[in-house]
Specification:
single chain; 408 residues; 9-stranded parallel β-sheet; 9-stranded mixed β-sheet
Length: 408
């Protein structure tokens, strides 16, 4: 029996007994097309075979295990608040004006539209998430409201498999800062839907810690006219970790910027896929992702920019730079451009290299040890991708520890 067949057998048994919070959620769960889950070799899963994410532990996620309060990162010197991703026991009186956070079953969101913005053909693992949906979280910022505290979501699990759904909606003219972190020792399948109304702005920082368990997450974002999405994404390896980002600039004048860091070591596997679709006119996107692979790890990145017909005056740029620390480490990088408009400015590029021998010699000649010199050079390589704020400093210290620098 293949991994897919065994997984589907376990999943079918679980779906029949899984309790949900509302009849509409049960209908949504039953709409999952599990027969559409692919098997075998797929080009989009070339470096992380999809069957490696068919873990039977997902068929039995326990209620209440989606949120563990002991998370590794806190926003130390800024106002913030934390809500559980299960949508349970939220103290709504503590939420800032203009912001609501409710469970899926309690929210005013039309559950028939929950998967409407997701490309389930491109991302078939959404069917698993839908089939196992019990509840989730809907965060909504009212039109014209600027929420100044940072919303902190701790998607951290330590006991059992995790399958979570979070929806974030910014109505026109609103603004939110979001800090999302993953720290787990269990299998995970997560979907984050983000919808940005006209003239809204989302500042999103994402930290994914190292884990010995397989994890898959889809972040799907839709931007309307003049919406702005800023994403700082930091990912460590796992066994394996697969992160899919799907960003669609459907409105005119929409703006997307991604800065990211990818680190793998030992036998880690990390596969990050970013698809940016420019649909509206006068769109702008910027991507800068730096990666470091050491040991016998495998680091993969695919960045695809798709300029749709009629998306004139688009300005899209992508840069992926990587350091291969050990000869046994493997780095796969593939930037792509697909253009169907004639008045655009687009550029993409990718590099894989080693630590510069002359720079290393210079530091060694000043009395710095080989290990410390290498750590300094790697820290400098990642510096361009770190946010210039207190959270960025905390993340920088964690990355330093991963690289064997002063934070180790």
């Amino acid at each position: 029996m293949t991994a897919r067949e065994l997984f589907l057998e376990e999943l079918a048994t679980r779906v029949q007994t899984l309790a949900v919070q509302a009849p509409a959620l049960a209908l949504l769960r039953n709409s999952a097309e599990l027969d559409e889950l692919p098997a075998g070799k797929l080009e989009s899963f070339k470096y992380t075979p999809i069957e490696s994410l068919y873990d039977t532990a997902l068929a039995d996620p326990e209620p209440g295990a989606m949120d563990v309060p002991d998370a590794p990162l806190r926003i130390a010197d800024a106002d913030h608040f934390v809500v559980p991703v299960s949508g349970i026991d939220i103290d709504t009186s503590a939420l800032p004006a203009g912001l609501s956070a409710l469970g899926l079953a309690e929210s005013t969101l039309d559950l028939k539209e929950l998967n409407a913005g997701l490309d389930v053909v491109r991302y078939p693992l959404v069917h698993v998430n839908t089939a196992l949906i019990r509840d989730g979280l809907v965060v909504r910022v009212a039109a014209g409201h600027r929420v100044t505290p940072t919303l902190q979501l701790n998607l951290t699990s330590a006991e059992t498999a995790t399958c979570s759904r979070v929806v974030i909606i910014l109505e026109p003219g609103s603004e939110l800062r979001l800090f999302e972190q993953h720290h787990q020792s269990v299998v995970a399948n997560r979907v984050l839907e983000i919808r940005l109304g006209a003239d809204s702005t989302l500042h999103h920082t994402r930290w994914q810690g190292r884990s010995d368990c397989s994890a898959w997450q889809l972040t799907s974002v839709v931007l309307e006219d003049n919406a702005c999405y800023r994403l700082d994404a930091f990912s460590l390896g796992g066994a394996p970790h697969r992160n899919d980002f799907h960003v669609r600039l459907t409105g005119n004048g929409a703006d997307f910027e991604l800065k990211g860091v990818q680190l793998t070591r030992d036998a880690d596997k990390l596969d990050q896929q970013v698809v940016v679709e420019h649909v509206g006119q006068h769109g702008r996107s910027r991507q800068r992702i730096h990666g470091i692979a050491s040991g016998k790890s495998r680091l993969s990145f695919n960045g695809r920019i798709h300029i749709h017909p009629g998306a004139q005056h688009t300005d899209a740029r992508l840069t992926n730079r990587n350091l291969q620390i050990d000869g046994s480490a493997q780095i796969n990088t593939k930037p792509e451009l697909e253009i169907y408009a004639d008045d655009v400015q687009c550029a993409h590029g990718a590099t894989v290299g080693q630590i510069d021998a002359e720079q290393l010699f210079y530091l060694r000649s000043r009395g710095i040890s080989d290990a410390a010199a290498r750590a300094l050079l790697m820290q400098g390589f990642l510096a361009d991708c770190l946010p210039d704020n207190s959270l960025g400093q905390q993340i920088g210290r964690l990355l330093d520890a991963e690289l064997g620098g002063p934070g180790a």
